[in-house]
Amino acid sequence: MIHIAQAIIVEGKYDKIKLSSILDAVILVTNGFRIFHDAEKMSLIRYYAKTTGVIILTDSDTAGFKIRHYLKGAIHEGKLYHVYIPDIYGKERRKDKPSAEGKLGVEGIDKKRLLEAFTKAGILADERPAKADSITKLDLYELGLSGGADSRARRKALQKKLGLPDLLSAASLLEVLNTMMTRTELQALLETLA
């Protein structure tokens, strides 16, 4: 796995699945044009822009560029990186026919070309094992943040303390927490909330 420190923004879930097979990174999905009306997701993207930086990786079609330009205009603070995939004509395997413009999206680009796109954008990647003190689903359960009677309230209090969006699921919170802190740091923070 290749580790990328920045959060990566993609258009759809299949783009996320493709990148997850290659990269160890936080990958956020815009769900296409829904990002234009999703204040919670934009809040999370802005948070990552200020802390780790964000990488925008959209398809090379008109819709992808509209989303890219919207995000560029909506992120005022922090670091923003642009990774562009080449125009390759064809059809993704899971689709019956090519897209309207006939170009492959992120999900259809092979691993080699995706990694070349990151290199061209100056994104430094390194191969390293996962953190030894990373937070797991079991940790969330044991710390009372999931699966318990008042776990939702504890999650909301933690999210408020960290300035995170209110609508994060436990799974999304786990992903975000692992970019922010270790298990030990989370335990210490939760003690201050008790």
Structure in words:
The strands form 2 sheets. The protein has a 4-stranded parallel beta sheet, with helices on both faces. Strands 3-1-7 form a 3-stranded mixed beta sheet, with no helix packed on it. 27% of the residues are buried. The chain is built from 8 helices and 7 strands; from the N terminus they run ββαββαβαβαβαααα. By secondary structure, the chain is α/β, with parallel strands linked by helices. Helix content is 43%, strand content 10%.
Could you give the topology of this structure?
Blueprint: E1 2-3, E2 7-10, H1 13-20, E3 23-24, E4 27-29, H2 39-51, E5 54-56, H3 62-74, E6 80-82, H4 111-120, E7 126-127, H5 137-142, H6 151-162, H7 170-180, H8 183-193
Parallel strand pairs: 1-3, 2-4, 2-5, 5-6
Antiparallel strand pairs: 1-7
Task: Identify the notable features of this structure and list them briefly.
194 residues, alpha/beta, 4-stranded parallel beta sheet, 8 helices, 43% helix
Task: Describe the structure concisely.
The protein is built from eight helices and seven strands.
Number of strands: 7
List SSEs in N-to-C order: EEHEEHEHEHEHHHH
Largest sheet: 4 strands, parallel
The outline comes out as: elongated
Order of strands in the sheet with the most strands? 4-2-5-6
User: Overall pLDDT, averaged?
Assistant: 87
Number of helices: 8
Terminal-residue CA separation: 37 Å
Low-confidence stretches: none
The proportion of strand residues reads: 5-15%
Structural classification: alpha/beta
Rg for CA atoms:
18 Å
Helical coverage, percent range: 40-55%
